[in-house]
Structures are given as C-alpha cells and as structure tokens.
Design brief:
single chain; 67 residues; mainly alpha; two-stranded antiparallel sheet; 4 helices
Length: 67
C-alpha cells in the first residue's frame, strides 16, 4: 500500500468517526479549519466534516507543506 494512503487512513481513523470529526458542529468545524489552515473545509469541499477532511488531505493541488 502506498505510504501516503496509509498515513491518511491512519489520520482519518483518529479524527473521523462516521463523519463526526472530534466534537465539532458544522459551523465550529468550518471556523476551526478556517482559523487553523486558512480554508473552511466543509464550505470548500462540501459533504460531511469527515468527507471534507479526507478531500483536503487527498487534494493533489495542495502542497504537502500546507497539509
């Protein structure tokens, strides 16, 4: 298995539980990600908090240093 995919799966297992990312509401998740990384993930990628986090982590247009 590709090492990057393995790392993403491990990360997602820690933070994403069936679409629930930690204890964030949709609004607080967008605010947190916007303040932390400059991108309101759910607004940009759509879907659930978990799906938007996964989309961000696998987005090839974002450099590794930004992730």
């Amino acid at each position: 298995m590709d090492e990057e995919i393995k790392t993403i799966r491990q990360f997602m297992a820690l933070f994403n539980r069936n679409g629930y990312v930690l204890d964030f509401s949709n609004a607080s998740y967008n605010l947190f990600t916007s303040n932390s990384i400059g991108v309101p993930l759910q607004s940009v990628y759509g879907g659930s908090k978990g799906k938007s986090l996964e989309a961000y982590l696998t987005d090839k247009t974002i450099s590794e240093k930004d992730k």
